[in-house]
């Protein structure tokens, strides 16, 4: 059921039916919901007009190369579904003390890319802390929204027993925004 929902993450009716079936069988659908939200965010990011602008701001990073059309989400969904088949869905989880799977790390890298605030022009949200320039209330509100947006990355890491991503903290640290 889980791989089926993941492969069809853009079909809300099928995903809802799979979640309902999991609940009826006594399994928690929380991890599936997180994975679906992750794939949807990655997909919408690569389909957005901001993607072309954002890809230049992450030059030199360790992000995976994406296909020419930009949307690699279908491939990520396929490999994530295979990951669930390999570990037998919810019953048998990957050992916590092993190295994270390449699949989960690839999904995490794309999720980080899709979740970091896009700073095309102008100051970062925390830059006013250093310079005192700009509307602090507006920038703080945008920072709060960005932090809320980032919470999916943290949740994905927790659900899959991955080390919590520090990319957002690194971005905040550049502005001394603690």
From TrEMBL:
GO CC field: cytoplasm
The organism's place on the tree of life at top rank: Eukaryota
Entry protein name: Uncharacterized protein
Native source species: Nymphaea colorata (pocket water lily)
């Amino acid at each position: 059921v889980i791989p089926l929902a993941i492969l069809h993450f853009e079909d809300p009716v099928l995903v809802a039916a799979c979640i309902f079936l999991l609940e009826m069988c006594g399994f928690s659908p929380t991890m599936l919901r997180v994975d679906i939200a992750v794939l949807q965010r990655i997909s919408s990011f690569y389909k957005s007009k901001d993607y072309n602008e954002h890809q230049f701001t992450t030059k030199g990073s360790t992000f995976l190369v994406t296909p020419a059309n930009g949307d690699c989400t279908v491939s990520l969904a396929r490999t994530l579904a295979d990951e669930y088949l390999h570990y037998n869905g919810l019953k048998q989880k990957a050992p916590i003390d092993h190295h994270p799977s390449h699949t989960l790390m690839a999904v995490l890298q794309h999720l980080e890319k899709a979740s970091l605030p896009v700073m095309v022009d102008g100051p970062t949200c925390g830059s006013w802390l250093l310079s005192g320039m700009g509307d602090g209330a507006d920038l703080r509100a945008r920072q709060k929204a960005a932090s809320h947006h980032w919470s999916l990355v943290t949740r994905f890491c927790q659900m899959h027993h991955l080390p919590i991503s520090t990319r957002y903290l690194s971005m905040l640290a550049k502005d001394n925004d603690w």
